[in-house]
Specification:
Four copies of one chain form a homotetramer. The first copy, chain A, is mainly alpha-helical and 348 residues long. Chain A has helices spanning 2-6, 9-15, 17-37, 43-55, 60-70, 74-82, 87-90, 99-136, 155-174, 197-210, 224-250, 276-297, 307-336, and strands at residues 144-145, 148-149, 258-260, 338-341. In chain A, strand 1 and strand 2 (148-149) form a beta hairpin. The longest helix of chain A is centred in the middle third of the chain and has 38 residues, at 99-136. The first copy, chain A, is elongated and about 80 Å long. At the A-B interface, helix 1, helix 5, helix 6, helix 11 and helix 12 of A face helix 1, helix 5, helix 6, helix 11 and helix 12 of B.
Chain lengths: 348, 348, 348, 348
């Protein structure tokens, strides 16, 4: 039932085990293809690996058990994948890579795709606000500061403020067509930026194949990108939270500055119309504002890989993305449900 | 796959939609039974209601849709339940109650049951630590302050500190056999404590039927109980986090103060044994430490019911309980996997 | 200027360097007095130590420099104190204790005193609400759920809910006359509970002398007490935040359910009356709700003393106490400024 | 004493009342100068205002009292300033502006200046790491993942990772020479972006005069810029936290991979050398990671100005900036204190 208010089917589909495994397989396939193109791995091995990835059906319970023991899914996943490969091809799988490369890159690809969905929804909501501004913007609507009436104004003023918040967040996403995160390809112990020209070329090729930005060096222990992306997720959820807070307040009896179609009911007072979506947006904003903190705690990353800090990211980042998804979905519905706005909108 | 490290089957079963609906039905059944015993509701209506509850199969998609519209599941759930009742009985269902009464009481019952599970696991882990203290406590183990060796000591000293942390948290739970939360029975707009002797008697009877503590007044807008319970959940997860942090540090090459059986592997270095469970405990502790903040934001509860603050609780409290569940489960496994402890334990 | 809204003179005086040093000296004095009474330390040394403590004037810049180097103030403070003692007395100063004993005990004493102030203010505010309930409680005031008018009611209903929140938090403090924290007396590497009967007797004597609760064992690495106390601070700040949020909303033009004397002005619209105190209470509540999270991160305490986790407490706990102080102070003023309440209170 | 570890004199000087008032006066002066240049305000009035600003000595106690009543300092500050102006000049002071314009712009100027200091320190620390890499980089230093030895490597690898973290954060600051925040000039109720060409020209002139970026529209209620800046502050504090965590762990007895000069002492064990600065960096990182959450809660900003959300920013943003200041200061000292690094550095 909570899924209805805090979940998101489309974003959720990018975050489940199937999508994660598919993206890891795409990484492994692209890695050996790139290595074959560079003459590091035989073409036949790369073909075998691609075929094995296509045919692979994960034994999820075994991966779950291994997850508990190893802290990561990749060693067991590779073990299963290798079972479908000849010995000579098997040793070329995951070559020069480590679990973190596969897992971070899978996250990067899926977060990029989630960002596209979020961007499209924000743009749709901003478009709807533009139409609303045209349609209803001329209604009188006093500005309120510190919750008190400040000056006479128009509905268009408040609507434009809402729209600009969505536009500025959308702009940030448009600047990053490959997403906030980047290819991860550091190998077992990470590599400094300048270490190895060949490896850099391979990484550039891999980034192109996967449609991901290329980082100057691996970011295995520098989680600033994750923090930035999480900040954007919380920032956009906060923008919808502000819109929701305004609308919930505008719907108050006595204020009556907005009329929503399809406002919700109560078990004890069936006549009462509650601005449920508006309040849910506030809750989602506060949820992501809280979760962001954990991502920043994850910056304190011991040595060349912190199991603790990295696991904390896994617990939080998908949740934040889903919450942003719910905010864009419900925010779009709420904006679409505005029937009247401005002073006297709700007066009988 | 994340479920393997952050989930908990037993606790999870108390938190799903089925368990929530079952507890809401138990509330409605007990409410009309109590009202019938008090002569407020006809015995036949109470019997009809009990039967309808027994037979009821929720239409979950319809509840999901209503959730989005109303912000709560109960109005639609009651609508479905009333469809199986005669008109004369239907008007006695949910009498004098509001959605929040049913939902908060359902949460209270399930959190009480989750607490019992957590308590049992903490006691088991403390027992295991007692045995460990006896078995391995005599090994030399220097104390470390600020990560530096401080004074000579025994493994028993550190093990006893771990045990006492679990015992003190367990003691808090034992003091509250009915759990931290209480019966909620405030009605549509809440009732001051002294308002109504009859209602108080009814509430006392209802609390007895449901095995819940009785609050001095309704706590619809005073979420201090929720904050206290969430604090305990984070506190116990933090205790396991401290144990996990110690063990992960003790397992470092060069420190080598602990040997764990079944430590995990790496995709690139199969010989390496990682203290995965220990690190997961740290991540779980930091997750709950972060989430707790959202529960306290929920204390700022507008008027007689805040949709925003209440929804925020729903997003967070079950997560916190699940995370505490994972910590007790994984903590128990980790403690059970200690083979050697003390200076030189891991030296070849 | 921020001090005016977020500070508190009385609580602040318990948190400054002078108060900290005075409490540390009280600990050292009581420690050697107790040890002298137990025959462990010569009476003359205890008298010398008491006299040196009385006469001691701290060289604060030197302590500041040492703080940076050592991470704690106590080693340098003791060095300065020893300079005023004969060599034979000097070696009995701080005997069997470690920096953390002195620092945690100082914090415990000052937090106990702060709690007394907070309690007195909460009781005064609750008393004022009782008077308000009598004086203005009969005004009509509809309840509002999800910000919408729910049912007719009286001002007394809402006022009583506010009062009960303060009373329940006050009750928690009254249950703990010596405060949440306890004497810390673990020595350099901490001591398990059962280790040493003599030391336990000494600790009990020390707790009596200092007016502090006695913990079952040292709590050097188990920061659950700190977490519990911080939870209470946030919980009470949250209670005032809820009252502030309600009042700020009641003061909205169009709602007009409350009249405050001495509401604030605006630089651009001098006629506008802003419910500044009410909004400040909301900000303080959200500040403490956020800070609490850091205290719970501090539960992950490495080994027998974590400099990182302990320093984090120092950065946060005094702030939380000060914020709770500001909330009780401003909350009292706000409640005292209510002139009218209830439907139509603010209608011209 | 806490100031020694969590404070920063240079950054602190930008955050105190004097600096705030000076920046507000600079805003008022530039505003009337710009308005005079545009022919909106008489040149003589602008000159009078500039002179009054030069001569003005704030009555801080009166501002403190007004702060409590009005929630902001500006109305009282302007009242005091107007007392030194002729009536004809006085009405041109603060023309077309509101308190928030002055306060946010003051914050923007001071945060820009703080950013310059932080940037210079990060660059100095990165430079020191470059020198360290050259000087000590050839020492053997095994990489560690999940706290366990992974692969052989060089000290240069770890040092380079530290350096790159600082460089990437510095780069973000270099991209924004005027800082993250922007001129605020929205007037009493804010203005939509396209409303008024004349006002836009005035704003552009004002931004030039004050050396601040120009936002597309006022950002009175869209606090995304504040959130982005706070994210950067936490991100850089986190980078130093990671360095501190690594160094504290490297200094462990048994690991012994680093030697620091001037490591701190203990009250009970004078021979013990504690990596106090390293641990303080971890605490500062976790403090800012926590505080960031409050800034994101401030995104939920009611209507055209939220006293609650705005006050929350004031409580948190200066603290975050000071904490980042302490991290850059202490981080620089810690890096400068590294004497040996790499495997065996600390072995006797």
């Amino acid at each position: 039932m909570l899924g209805a208010i805090a979940g998101d089917r489309e974003i959720g589909a990018l975050l489940d085990d199937g999508a994660d495994i598919a993206a890891i397989l795409e990484f492994e396939r692209a890695l050996s293809a790139g290595q074959a193109a560079a003459g590091i791995v035989p073409q036949s091995a790369a073909r075998d690996i691609a075929r094995a990835c296509d045919r692979y059906t994960p034994d999820l319970p075994a991966i779950g058990r291994a997850m508990m023991r190893d802290g990561v899914a990749v060693p067991e996943l590779l073990r299963q994948l290798r079972a479908g490969l000849s010995e000579s091809s098997a040793r070329h799988l995951h070559r020069g890579a480590t679990s973190q490369d596969a897992i971070d890159t899978s996250m990067a690809m899926r977060m990029r795709d989630a960002t596209k969905l979020l961007l499209a929804r924000m743009q749709a909501a901003a478009g709807e606000l533009t139409r609303l501004e045209r349609r209803l913007g001329a209604s009188a609507l006093a500005s309120r500061t510190r919750l008190k009436v400040a000056l006479p104004g128009l509905a268009a003023d408040r609507i434009a403020r809402w729209r600009r918040m969505l536009e500025s967040r959308a702009l940030e996403a448009k600047k990053r067509p490959g997403g906030w995160l980047a290819l991860q390809y550091g190998g077992p112990a990470g590599r400094p930026a300048r270490s190895d020209r060949k490896r850099q070329a391979l990484a550039a090729d891999l980034a192109r194949r996967l449609g991901l930005p290329m980082a100057g060096a691996d970011w295995q222990t520098d989680r600033g990108r994750v923090a930035d992306f999480a900040g954007w997720l919380s920032d956009l959820t906060g923008a919808f939270g502000k819109i929701g807070q305004d609308i919930a307040l505008m719907a108050q009896n006595g204020i009556d500055e907005i009329v929503l179609k399809d406002a919700g009911g109560s078990s004890a007072m069936p006549h009462k119309r509650n601005p449920a979506r508006a309040e849910i947006l506030v809750a989602l904003a506060r949820y992501n504002a809280t979760l962001l903190s954990a991502i920043h705690h994850g910056l304190v990353h011991e040595f060349e890989r912190s199991g603790a800090a990295w696991t904390l990211e896994w617990l939080v980042l998908p949740n934040m993305c889903l919450t942003a998804g719910a905010a864009t979905r419900i925010g779009g519905e709420l904006i679409g449900s505005i029937e009247k706005i401005g002073d006297g909108a709700g007066r009988k």
